[in-house]
Amino acid sequence: MTEPQVDPVAAAIDVQDLHKSFGANEVLKGIDFHVDNGQVVCVIGPSGSGKSTLLRCVNLLETPTSGRIFVEGIEITDPDVDVDKVRSRIGIVFQSFNLFPHLSVLRNLTIAQQRVKGRSKDEAVAVARRNLEKVGLSEKVDAYPAHLSGGQQQRVAIARALSMDPDMMLFDEPTSALDPELVGDVLAVMKDLASEGMTMMVVTHEMGFAREVGDHLVFMDGGVIVEEGRPADVLSDPQHERTTSFLSKVL
Ligand code: ADP
Ligand code: MG
Prior knowledge:
Layout: E1 13-22, E2 25-35, E3 40-44, H1 51-58, E4 66-71, E5 74-75, H2 83-88, E6 90-93, H3 105-115, H4 121-134, H5 150-162, E7 168-172, H6 180-195, E8 199-203, H7 207-213, E9 216-221, E10 224-229, H8 231-236, H9 241-250
Parallel strand pairs: 3-8, 3-9, 6-7, 7-8
Antiparallel strand pairs: 1-2, 1-4, 4-5, 9-10
The chain binds adenosine-5'-diphosphate and magnesium ion.
Magnesium ion (MG) is lined by residues 51-52, 172-173.
């Protein structure tokens, strides 16, 4: 079998007629969605609308029931695809920071680099230090997660994902578990990433971030995309009653 090749001109993420059911519960009811290279696409919508499931399907943490997903031109819903290889190109950051509590910040950032990427310890440490600097936490290299604020832990989680050199980053409500005063630092790191040209899919309730940083905004409800467009347009001039109703509760 020939190795599928990354196609540099293909969309970063291309989702076609995606359906996902859990038992009798159809959670995604035909999603068409794409993210271009270098684009920041934000996804908003009420709790239970299927945002996390969509994001998890893109990383193959969930197996779609039907439909096709392409990442950089490679069909990842092809049963023969190398799942680990797909995942290694996609960084993911969750609401809960998911750091290894018994490992130092530095070790949190080096372990997968050594085990999955096969990097030497020195190389992994150098990459880790570079990414900790990027998220403003160089001085925390020897700290343990429990000694960091939630915002710092989330920035470490971002640095850890970046240390795997992903082509794109998925964020699932990365600031929802944070105290309000810690949200800004995490959003600032994400904004920097976007300005460096990182391709990003961001599930968020931060409408200010979506408006300022997002290139495209998708509103989901009940397992479908109800409305999408330029963030300023969708937020200021929603075309659907369901969007208006949702925005009236969160803005
Ligand atoms: P959102 O992220 O928009 O809040 P989710 O994608 O998490 O929505 O969930 C959408 C629906 O799918 C919910 O009804 C949820 O209960 C259901 N769901 C999500 N994951 C699972 C799972 N692993 N097993 C069964 N049901 C699930
Ligand atoms: Mg969710």
